[in-house]
Write a structure and sequence with these properties.
The chain is an alpha/beta fold. Helix content is 69%, strand content 8%.
Length: 732
Amino acid sequence: MVAAVNADLFVGAVVDRIQDVLYKRVHNFKRQQLAVLTRAVVLYARHQKAVQRSIIALVCVGLIDRLRRVVKLAKSKRQPNKDANDTGPRRGAQLDKQFFENMRRLVAIVIPGLLSKEFGMLVAHTVLLVVRTFLSVAVAALDGQIVSSLVRLRGREFLLGIAKWMGMAVPATLTNSLLGYVQTMLAIRFRQNLTEHVHTKYLANNTYYSVGNLDDRIKNADQLIAVDVAKFANSLAEIYSNLAKPTLDAFVYNVQLARSLGVESLFGIMVIIQMSMGMLRVLAPPFGQLVAQEQRLEGDFYFAHSRLIEHAEEIALYRGHEAEKRTITRRYMRLVRHVNRIFRLNVFYGMLEDFIVKYFWGAAGLVACAAPVFAERLPGAQKAVAVLQGENILGDRTRDFITNRRLLLSGSDALGRMMYSYREIVELAGYAERVTDLLTVLDDVSAGNFVKTRVGKSAEKNLESGDEPDIIAQRGQVVESTDDVEFIDVPIVSPNGDVLVKQLSFHVKPGRHLLIVGPNGCGKSSMFRILGGLWPVYGGTLRKPSMSQIFYIPQRPYLPIGTLRDQIIYPDTAEDMERKGVSDASLQAILGVVQLGSVVEREGGWDAVKPWRDALSGGDKQRIAMARLFYHRPQYAIMDECTSAVSMDVEKIMYTHATQLGITLLTVSHRQSLWQYHNWILQYDGQGGYMFSELDPERRIALMEEKQEIEQELSLIRDMEARLNELEAQVL
């Protein structure tokens, strides 16, 4: 029993001895660590200037290297692209040299110069941003003073701080309101300048026609002009504020923090921030490509509805609503799937971004703020702190911590907005790419460079031709004449590349009224489109007067938005009509010629505004188009089945009056009643051939009647032969 007790005592003594030894060693280790940390702090204090200069030099080297990369990128984007002739689509909007080239081109449009109103608004916006930043710094310092006075229980200082706080609220709120106003006005000015620039290109030289009919790169120019231009303008105005303000805030706040915490602490925080920003850039989804694709899908969906509205009557007659519903639903679901994909990507990226910006950076800032306070507990610093009063050191600690914490939180928020602006920048890249593509296509089309997908027979012939020159890429000559129209070996080619007539030659002088006949698809309307300048001349020589002397009247006339007077004088305005010396009475006389004199009183006068497309019947529309011809009185009139909805007696009156006015007629019609108003004929055979000769209406009518009689007799003979064969078979 005694032995057992002695054994327990021995074990207890050994354990106590081991614990004592371990405690001494751990305590010695802590003292050694503290001594090393103290020596490091003392060493740093002795060489603080050198350390700060080294850090500043390292930062400068980093900035110079980044500036060198930016300059190199700027030089590389000015170099010509080796694949400049490549018309294939890019992979999507990216922050590459093409983005900077797009932005350089668009910014030069929205901000015309240094003396422009837009640049002045941009300068005012920048000044307001600077004022707002310095107000934020002053508010942060005042916040620290208010909390310090509260900790020190100094009521007078606290109330004075509250009064200063309320005083700063007036300029701060005014600055915020002015910033919002200037940003909105900038977006409006940007959109106005860009829209006017696009309209100048789009509504000149029949570009609006060529974009949709001769080129396949843009299918929804209306959506690009009305929607994408506005989105780009708003995004550009917002990105300046969302990028310039955080950048300025981060710079000013970092300067203030460098004075309070030291350059070293700030450098450590910036290293952490740069590493986390790099990780976010690596993990960020391709938002630019996604936005550009979303806009394309939106355009396809919009285009499907536009086609439904445009062809509503034909679709209803064919009862094709189910087929159109399938098409629209398919495009809509494609858009929905793409948008859902963007939302799913935003869930992960938004979570990661919020964690890093709000919590990780905030924790790093709190550590940096607390470091000076805990550094006072080092042995070397306690002696210096001991001489200070407890109340003062507590208030100063509170003031410095609150001020630094507010500056760090504001700086973290500024850096967070810079991170968020990365997503906005790539979205801006998507809008910029689509708007730049629109401008590029408009420039190409204005220069006569078209990109058309070859399908059908044209595509097969293009593959078979091999190295032979493509007729679509060739161009003929267009010579402006005084008063005649002449085609000299001009091929009639559709934009798809289908050759309808290899070489067409004919000559029309004033007074030579030309009748054009032939089967459908032989090239009648195509020839008119070439003559009207809608299609390019793919070869030969075309002589024609100026377009002001050639007037085109289609089967379905166009009625613009405006008054009844505007329907007659289109495309002139009321001021143009007055300069020509034409009055409303003259217009009334013209309407009397086309047997439409009562329409003015019936529709409510010359200044009545209605949806004329629905208010007038088909025959009235064609009479309005003829009245428009008599108002302008050109040298040549292209009449494309333009009297198919009027009676023959009214048609006779209109054609007779046109010839009396000295208008040379180029008519496409199958009515024999119109032959008497023409003395030349251009007849297509539908196989690529044609015949151009004088026309004797009476003789041609007689020949046609004789031809019809013979055809009827032949049909009777064939019927009799068939009946004879049946009878012979029955008899045998």
